[in-house]
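[step 3/7] fold_predict: job queued, chain A
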Amino acid sequence: MDGTVHIIFIFFSRCTHCKRLHPTWEELAQLLNEDNKSIVTVAKVDCTQDTALCSEHDVTGYPTLKFFGLDRKEAVKFRGTRDLPSLLNFLDEQLGSSVLVGIISLRYSKKGADDEHKGLIELTDDTFKKHLSTGNHFVKFYAPWCGHCQRLAPTWEAVAMGLANDDSVKISKIDCTMNREACKVYDIKSYPTLLWIQNGEKLDKYQGQRSVDDLTEYIAEMKGTITDEVPPPPPQPASPVVSLTGDTFETGIQKGITFVKFFAPWCGHCKGLAPTWEELGKIYVTKYDINIAKVDCTLEQNKELCSDQEVDGFPTLLLYKDGRKISEYNGSRGLEDLIEFVTKHSSHDEL
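[step 4/7] structure written:
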């Protein structure tokens, strides 16, 4: 090798682990092997063919990954996890961040000029403040060497293309290796980071799945298009059952027949009776001298009232006539039974 090249070799055979590493190694090569003038070359040696070379470099297992630097007599053996981020982190340690970032950023900047996609805006330290200062923006903060960023790139471009004619939101991206100020402003600590920004302010960090459908649905939710299209719930009709409290109870039972349910919302029997009690209220809603009412005994303002009325279980059903308690109902809680009870007492005073 000449004096301008750092080389990282893979020594391999036909082993299963070697086959498994192959696509990742190809991806690393595509990322770094720009041309024969590149300062980094990703290479490989088949030890079933070049046995002498592998023996010279003390290769005893497969695959073996070694880095040969300019100022090192001995190669540095890679011992980490064999995925792209780990390999790039290893190179970052051997070369230094500025060298690695410079290589990759230059590669991607050239590629980006040829692969511009409609709808996707590339922001920089010089342009991000003005662009993001007004309106809705969905922004990808990334690093070109990041494996997850690389996998997201075509999806992000597809999302941008789908919204190219939508003026209500803009899709953009910022390379944090080249635009440190922008990424510092938005406190970016990992890649990719996807932020929803409105009028220059971060509103939300997207942390869901990164498919086109998931990202598009999220954009729709943030714009409010989904919630806005849902019609408001229809107004609920007023209940025919009168709600009484400690302050209104005496007035509420003053005239005619008043049949009162004393209840607690957590009580299972009370919940079971509730729809029947509503039906009973509907039957008598037009009868000026018969009222169907209820009192929630769990409310602070009603606890003294329930105690005064000797309510010691739920539900308790008491019938009042002209302000006086005349009977407690202890029968079956079917609608017909309740009607019969009210009818019986509406024409007779019974203690």
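[step 5/7] annotate
Confidence is low (pLDDT under 50) at residues 108-117, 225-230.
The chain has 13 helices and 14 strands.
exit 0
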